[in-house]
Amino acid sequence: MKDLFGKALLDYQNGNYTEDIITSTNISDEDDLPLPYLFRGFSEMPKLEKKALKLAKGTILDVGCGAGSHSLYLQEKGFQVKAIDISKGAIEVTKLRGVLQAEVKDILDEKETFDTILLLMNGTGIFQELVEVSKYLSHLKNLLKPNGQILIDSSDIKYMYEDEDGGVWIDMNSTYHGELDYFLSYKDDEEDPMKWLYLDFEKLQLACETVGLKCELVVEGEHFDYLARLIPAFQPSSR
Ligand SMILES: C[S@@+](CC[C@H](N)C(=O)[O-])C[C@H]1O[C@@H](n2cnc3c(N)ncnc32)[C@H](O)[C@@H]1O
């Protein structure tokens, strides 16, 4: 990984903002990912993210923290927050912005336990593909303290396969429609292609059941997006 995402965040943080990140997928054309959006304050956040921050409690792990916007907000509210990301640049920026505990780390390497685990801005993207979902979910479940919760957002991107007449052209014999190849470029340099997973609520719920998590729909957004709250299906007895 060239960490172009981290480079872009660092440029913005250091006052060298000249252009945005460009993203595209195997089913969509190029689109701008505005750097200021990654540094958003609470008032600029979508309603799903605001709701997740309101529900956060206890010790918090912000997975894939990016520029650390959610961690910063929660830390300022007095919570103990740990921010992790696989991007070195992202963690440098998160620290520069004042987040006290921020580490370059893959979620699968995390071992501490938390009361709240946040995965926001299409949190299921980190799972990469459908066959990996149970592995990530059971690992996340193991990182929960008693009565802990996972707050995660995603969308059903079926609408991206619709043509102008409203017809849907999903090939039923191919892989799950939310599994995308994701391409990112910044300042004429291209990142290695990545896999990025959008998961509809029913599929997430089904995957949760297989690993002993209960999946509740917290709130739906305006465009097939949703916030879910996952808790262990069986809490250990307090006796
Ligand atoms: C779409 S960005 C979201 C950033 C941030 N949560 C926000 O809302 O602004 C996804 C982030 O997840 C990070 N990431 C991807 N895979 C990861 C993994 N396995 N463990 C930790 N972070 C990961 C990426 O480097 C990226 O910063």
Automatic annotation (TrEMBL):
Biological process terms from the Gene Ontology for this record are: methylation
For the keyword Transferase, the answer is yes
Q: Which InterPro entries match?
A: SAM-dependent_MTases_sf (IPR029063)
Which key words tag this protein in UniProt?
A: Methyltransferase, S-adenosyl-L-methionine, Transferase
Give the Gene Ontology MF terms in alphabetical order. methyltransferase activity
The source's superkingdom equals Bacteria
Name used for this protein in its record: Methyltransferase domain-containing protein
Source species of the chain: Mariniflexile litorale
List the lineage, top down: Bacteria, Pseudomonadati, Bacteroidota, Flavobacteriia, Flavobacteriales
